[in-house]
Write a structure and sequence with these properties.
The protein is of the alpha+beta class and 140 residues long. It has a single domain, classed as Alpha-Beta Plaits (2-Layer Sandwich), CATH 3.30.70.141. The protein is built from seven helices and four strands. The chain has a four-stranded antiparallel sheet with strand order 2-3-1-4. The two termini are 18 Å apart. The structure holds adenosine-5'-diphosphate (ADP) and magnesium ion. The site of adenosine-5'-diphosphate has 9 residues, from loops. Adenosine-5'-diphosphate binds next to loops. It comes from Azospirillum palustre. Keywords: ATP-binding, Cytoplasm, Kinase, Magnesium, Metal-binding, Nucleotide metabolism, Nucleotide-binding, Phosphoprotein, Transferase. It catalyses: a 2'-deoxyribonucleoside 5'-diphosphate + ATP = a 2'-deoxyribonucleoside 5'-triphosphate + ADP; a ribonucleoside 5'-diphosphate + ATP = a ribonucleoside 5'-triphosphate + ADP. It is found in: Cytoplasm.
Length: 140
Protein backbone atom coordinates (compact mmCIF):
# COMPACT_ATOMS: atom_id res chain seq x y z
CA UNK A 1 0.00 0.00 0.00
CA UNK A 2 1.05 3.54 -0.67
CA UNK A 3 0.20 6.89 0.85
CA UNK A 4 -2.37 8.52 -1.43
CA UNK A 5 -4.43 11.72 -1.54
CA UNK A 6 -8.09 11.89 -2.53
CA UNK A 7 -10.67 14.63 -2.96
CA UNK A 8 -13.56 14.67 -0.50
CA UNK A 9 -16.60 16.95 -0.59
CA UNK A 10 -19.05 17.36 2.27
CA UNK A 11 -22.23 18.04 0.31
CA UNK A 12 -24.95 20.67 0.96
CA UNK A 13 -27.36 18.25 2.68
CA UNK A 14 -24.69 17.68 5.34
CA UNK A 15 -23.49 21.28 5.76
CA UNK A 16 -27.17 22.31 6.11
CA UNK A 17 -27.61 19.85 9.00
CA UNK A 18 -24.35 20.96 10.69
CA UNK A 19 -22.72 17.54 10.22
CA UNK A 20 -19.22 18.64 9.14
CA UNK A 21 -17.59 17.66 12.41
CA UNK A 22 -19.35 14.31 12.74
CA UNK A 23 -18.40 13.40 9.17
CA UNK A 24 -14.78 14.46 9.62
CA UNK A 25 -14.56 12.38 12.81
CA UNK A 26 -15.35 9.33 10.64
CA UNK A 27 -12.46 10.17 8.30
CA UNK A 28 -10.01 10.84 11.12
CA UNK A 29 -11.08 7.80 13.15
CA UNK A 30 -10.70 5.77 9.93
CA UNK A 31 -7.03 6.72 9.60
CA UNK A 32 -7.24 9.57 7.09
CA UNK A 33 -5.72 13.03 7.63
CA UNK A 34 -7.36 16.24 6.36
CA UNK A 35 -4.45 17.99 4.62
CA UNK A 36 -6.51 20.74 2.91
CA UNK A 37 -9.95 22.15 3.60
CA UNK A 38 -12.17 25.04 2.47
CA UNK A 39 -15.87 25.83 2.68
CA UNK A 40 -17.24 27.34 -0.54
CA UNK A 41 -20.45 28.00 -2.45
CA UNK A 42 -20.02 26.33 -5.87
CA UNK A 43 -21.28 28.10 -8.98
CA UNK A 44 -23.46 26.25 -11.51
CA UNK A 45 -20.59 26.25 -14.01
CA UNK A 46 -18.18 24.79 -11.45
CA UNK A 47 -20.62 22.03 -10.42
CA UNK A 48 -21.34 21.18 -14.07
CA UNK A 49 -17.65 20.95 -14.87
CA UNK A 50 -16.84 18.92 -11.75
CA UNK A 51 -19.58 16.37 -12.51
CA UNK A 52 -19.03 16.54 -16.30
CA UNK A 53 -18.55 12.77 -16.51
CA UNK A 54 -22.25 12.42 -15.56
CA UNK A 55 -23.50 15.00 -18.09
CA UNK A 56 -25.55 12.44 -20.06
CA UNK A 57 -27.13 10.82 -17.00
CA UNK A 58 -30.82 11.57 -16.32
CA UNK A 59 -30.03 12.89 -12.84
CA UNK A 60 -27.37 15.41 -13.99
CA UNK A 61 -29.51 18.57 -13.80
CA UNK A 62 -30.89 17.69 -10.39
CA UNK A 63 -27.42 16.77 -9.13
CA UNK A 64 -25.99 20.14 -10.18
CA UNK A 65 -28.94 21.99 -8.59
CA UNK A 66 -28.42 20.03 -5.38
CA UNK A 67 -24.67 20.69 -5.29
CA UNK A 68 -25.22 24.46 -5.52
CA UNK A 69 -28.14 24.52 -3.04
CA UNK A 70 -25.81 25.45 -0.17
CA UNK A 71 -22.17 25.51 0.89
CA UNK A 72 -19.87 22.53 0.48
CA UNK A 73 -16.63 21.68 2.27
CA UNK A 74 -13.85 20.72 -0.14
CA UNK A 75 -11.12 18.59 1.42
CA UNK A 76 -8.06 16.59 0.53
CA UNK A 77 -7.68 13.42 2.60
CA UNK A 78 -4.34 11.66 2.91
CA UNK A 79 -3.39 8.20 4.12
CA UNK A 80 -2.53 4.64 3.22
CA UNK A 81 -4.72 3.59 0.30
CA UNK A 82 -6.71 6.79 0.84
CA UNK A 83 -8.84 6.57 -2.31
CA UNK A 84 -10.33 3.16 -1.51
CA UNK A 85 -10.28 3.78 2.25
CA UNK A 86 -12.32 6.97 1.84
CA UNK A 87 -14.89 5.13 -0.27
CA UNK A 88 -15.15 2.42 2.41
CA UNK A 89 -15.75 5.05 5.10
CA UNK A 90 -18.33 6.80 2.85
CA UNK A 91 -20.34 3.66 2.02
CA UNK A 92 -22.36 2.85 -1.11
CA UNK A 93 -23.79 5.65 -3.29
CA UNK A 94 -27.35 4.67 -2.34
CA UNK A 95 -27.68 4.84 1.46
CA UNK A 96 -30.13 1.93 1.27
CA UNK A 97 -27.16 -0.23 0.23
CA UNK A 98 -24.54 1.34 2.52
CA UNK A 99 -22.90 -0.76 5.25
CA UNK A 100 -23.46 -0.12 8.95
CA UNK A 101 -21.18 2.55 10.40
CA UNK A 102 -20.55 4.31 7.08
CA UNK A 103 -21.18 8.02 6.58
CA UNK A 104 -23.89 7.44 4.00
CA UNK A 105 -25.66 4.83 6.14
CA UNK A 106 -25.73 7.17 9.13
CA UNK A 107 -26.25 10.53 7.49
CA UNK A 108 -27.38 10.41 3.83
CA UNK A 109 -30.90 11.56 3.03
CA UNK A 110 -31.21 9.90 -0.41
CA UNK A 111 -29.21 8.49 -3.33
CA UNK A 112 -28.72 12.10 -4.49
CA UNK A 113 -28.34 13.91 -1.17
CA UNK A 114 -25.79 11.41 0.07
CA UNK A 115 -23.64 13.74 2.20
CA UNK A 116 -20.18 13.10 0.71
CA UNK A 117 -18.21 12.81 -2.53
CA UNK A 118 -14.98 10.83 -2.87
CA UNK A 119 -12.68 10.35 -5.86
CA UNK A 120 -12.87 6.88 -7.42
CA UNK A 121 -9.36 6.28 -8.83
CA UNK A 122 -5.82 7.74 -8.78
CA UNK A 123 -6.32 9.65 -12.05
CA UNK A 124 -9.63 11.22 -10.99
CA UNK A 125 -8.24 12.01 -7.53
CA UNK A 126 -5.35 13.95 -9.08
CA UNK A 127 -7.69 15.80 -11.48
CA UNK A 128 -10.28 16.60 -8.81
CA UNK A 129 -7.67 17.85 -6.30
CA UNK A 130 -6.12 20.10 -8.98
CA UNK A 131 -9.59 21.40 -9.93
CA UNK A 132 -10.13 22.87 -6.46
CA UNK A 133 -6.72 23.32 -4.81
CA UNK A 134 -3.35 24.87 -5.56
CA UNK A 135 -0.32 22.88 -4.41
CA UNK A 136 0.48 25.48 -1.73
CA UNK A 137 -2.90 24.76 -0.08
CA UNK A 138 -2.03 21.10 0.62
CA UNK A 139 -0.25 20.85 3.95
CA UNK A 140 0.46 17.26 4.95
P1 LIG B 1 -20.40 8.17 -6.05
O1 LIG B 1 -20.63 9.55 -5.46
O2 LIG B 1 -20.67 7.08 -5.04
O3 LIG B 1 -19.06 8.02 -6.72
P2 LIG B 1 -21.55 8.37 -8.73
O4 LIG B 1 -20.22 8.87 -9.18
O5 LIG B 1 -22.16 7.23 -9.48
O6 LIG B 1 -21.53 7.97 -7.18
O7 LIG B 1 -22.62 9.55 -8.77
C1 LIG B 1 -22.25 10.87 -8.42
C2 LIG B 1 -23.35 11.44 -7.57
O8 LIG B 1 -24.52 11.59 -8.35
C3 LIG B 1 -23.80 10.58 -6.37
O9 LIG B 1 -22.96 10.69 -5.25
C4 LIG B 1 -25.19 11.13 -6.12
O10 LIG B 1 -25.14 12.38 -5.43
C5 LIG B 1 -25.68 11.36 -7.54
N1 LIG B 1 -26.39 10.18 -8.06
C6 LIG B 1 -25.85 9.00 -8.47
N2 LIG B 1 -26.79 8.15 -8.91
C7 LIG B 1 -27.98 8.82 -8.81
C8 LIG B 1 -29.34 8.50 -9.11
N3 LIG B 1 -29.68 7.30 -9.61
N4 LIG B 1 -30.29 9.43 -8.85
C9 LIG B 1 -29.97 10.64 -8.34
N5 LIG B 1 -28.71 11.02 -8.05
C10 LIG B 1 -27.72 10.12 -8.26
MG1 LIG C 1 -18.32 9.00 -8.40
Amino acid sequence: MAVERTLSIIKPDATRRNLTGKINAKFEDGGLRIVAQKRVQLSKAQAEQFYGVHRERPFFGDLVSFMISGPVVLQVLEGENAIARNREIMGATNPANAAEGTIRKEFAESIEANSVHGSDAPETAAQEIAFFFAGIELVG
